[in-house]
Structures are given as C-alpha cells and as structure tokens.
Prior knowledge:
The structure is a single chain. By secondary structure, this protein is an alpha+beta fold. It has a domain at 51-158: Pleckstrin-homology domain (PH domain)/Phosphotyrosine-binding domain (PTB) (PH-domain like), CATH 2.30.29.30. It contains 2 helices and 9 strands. It has helices spanning 2-35, 150-158, and strands at residues 51-62, 79-86, 89-94, 100-103, 107-113, 115-116, 119-120, 126-133, 136-144. A 7-stranded antiparallel beta sheet has the order 4-3-2-1-9-8-5, with helices on one face. A two-stranded antiparallel ribbon has the order 6-7. Strand 2 and strand 3 form a beta hairpin. The longest helix has 34 residues, at 2-35. The mean pLDDT is 89. InterPro entries: PH_bac (IPR057446).
Amino acid sequence: MTRTLLALLCLAVFVLIAYGMWHGWRKRARAQEQVLAQFPAPPAEQGEPVLETTGVYVGTTIGDDWQDRVAIGDIGHRAEAVLRLTGQGVLVERDGASPLWIPAADVRGARTARGLANKVMTADGLLVVRWQLGDKVLDTGFRGDDKDVYEQWVDALNAGGKA
C-alpha cells in the first residue's frame, strides 16, 4: 500500500510540474502578444536564394537577453529548417511549423554566438540574425549543419543582405 501511495504522489508531483510549465509558457505568450508586433508573413515571391543552408532553427529571443525566448504561436518551437537569404529578406522554412520571414529592411546584422534561447554549444556554434520587429529588437538563432558557411552569412547580412 505504501508503494502505491508513493507512486501516486510521484505521479501527482510530475503532473503538477508539467501543468506549471505549460501554464507558464501560455502566460509568457499572452504577455508577449501585448508588446510584440505581428510577425510578417513571407511574400509570395521571395526571389532566388543568394545563400541557403540546412540545420536547426533554435528559437527567437527578445533583445540582448539570450534566454528570453519568444513564445507566441509556434515561433518558440525548435525545428529542423532551411535558412534562405534572398534580396527581399531571410526565410526560415521550418519542418512542422510555420515559416519565419525576416524582411531585408528589418535585418540589423548577424553574428555567431555560443548560445541562444537556452541552447548552449561550442564557441560560434550558432548563427544569430538580429532584426527589428516593430519597436523591439529580436535575435533569431540557427544551428547550421555546416558551420563553415557562417562567415558568408555574417558578411552578407552585415552588408545589408547582399552577397
């Protein structure tokens, strides 16, 4: 009888923790919806890709806080993705999630980083695109399958999106 009660207690604690995490994520999303502008939709024609690479979309954070993950919609969900740079902007085409479009006019630069959105790896393991959404600055992180292309991306995005 004691083992059954202990097992039920452990299950109850686990369910309570899972509910708290889910509730916290929803609360964060509602708060961010109040302060962030609507994310832009990709245009029907983006143009030919100047650069393209595959990898994992890590997430998008607000400003300089590398742990303040955006939770609106499915923007906060990690996914395998293809990152494309065109003359009109940057497209993050994610598997199983909506695409993320960053217009070229909103790109503020790019860099490599060690971590973003609670994902930490070796030095320069992430490509981070800094961009403007309304009055907020966002960082979008991408972990490429081939990290040797990061320099090309950083140069192209810091030069205004033209390779």
